[in-house]
Amino acid sequence: MNAILRKLTETLEARKKDDPSKSYTASLYRDGLEAILKKVNEEAFETIIAARQGDDKDLIHEVADLWFHTLVLMAHKNLSVDDILNELSRREGISGIDEKENLVLKNK
Predict the structure, then answer these.
(1) What is the pTM of this model?
(2) pLDDT tens column, 67-93
(3) Domains in the chain, please, with CATH?
């Protein structure tokens, strides 16, 4: 499973150097953070709609779009799939309630 995410990460990095007129991803990078955030927001909304409508194929499609655009965001910020996987690994075995409580205490 991680192999496809790593390959996609490599592709996204390569797209940073591509011609925006020939690459959708390169055009997102060119347009900057706000354009990328707009796409993440749009895909999150479409994911919610697909989940509510109950069509699993549509939901899978929309989640794939959401993940893709989230990975574009991460690459734009020079972060990677490994950063996400490391954070998920760190959280393994920690209850969501404890995680939220620790975050609140950390931000005080």
Answers:
(1) 0.84
(2) 999 999 999 999 988 899 899 998 888
(3) 2-81 (1.10.287.1080)
